[in-house]
TrEMBL record:
Stated family: Belongs to the universal stress protein A family.
Descriptive protein name: UspA domain-containing protein
Pfam families, alphabetized: Usp (PF00582)
Domain UspA: 5-126, 137-263
Amino acid sequence: MIGEHVLVGFAPDAGGREALALARAVVARTGGRLTVAAVHPPDRPAAAGEAQASLRQAAALLDDQPAEFAAHESRGVGRGLSVLASRAGADLIVIGSRAGGARGRIAIGSTGDHLLHSATEAVMLAPAGYERREDLDRITVAYVRRPQCDEAVQRAAQAAAALGVALRLLTLAVGDDQTERLRDDLALAVRLAHDSAALDAEAVETELGEGDDIEDALHSVDWSGTELLVCASSEDAAAHRVFLGENALKMLRAAPCPVAVLPRGYT
């Protein structure tokens, strides 16, 4: 289950605070460790000092919550977070949205773009304006019938069972997609969830969103205020790496909740 050791990328801005709020919510549910990271460019003493100041600000926001803190020198924030996560043994990297994005939606900047196309750990993104919530009530898996999504269903089912939250399997039918075939695929995914986590079939909800495009289809179904959307990596991803495909990227940008992306072959 992701969240046993969470590394959050922090900067002294809205995106950094929202990422920290989401990371705190994750470890509150999983009981995992929290590491707060600030990445700064090399060969700039002033930048190193600013990174340390950022970490002090994060510590103040955490109050007395236990956490580890790390400043790291790197030419890119995404690359630096990946290196730190690997060194620390983190299984999840949490970041916020870039500045200027619409409230309630995820906007991907250079850091997110790097992580979503090369990270070896799961990546979770907070939408703009995210506020800390500890009452996660449902995990939704974006599902199409392929091995990477089957893996995501298995991991999400295990997480839902461990956390005591609902599990929903969501498929989007766009344009002229054959809805009956998609419903049959969802039925097979329910059996997979049951077999992987001993969940009753009735405990797994399925839903088919329909629309003219991915955003319309995604918004045709209900979303709670305390939900997590899980996406699998593309079949083009290298083993044990994140690589977000075009359709999943559209879902991420339209999602009204935090989104987690699993590496290919995630265990």
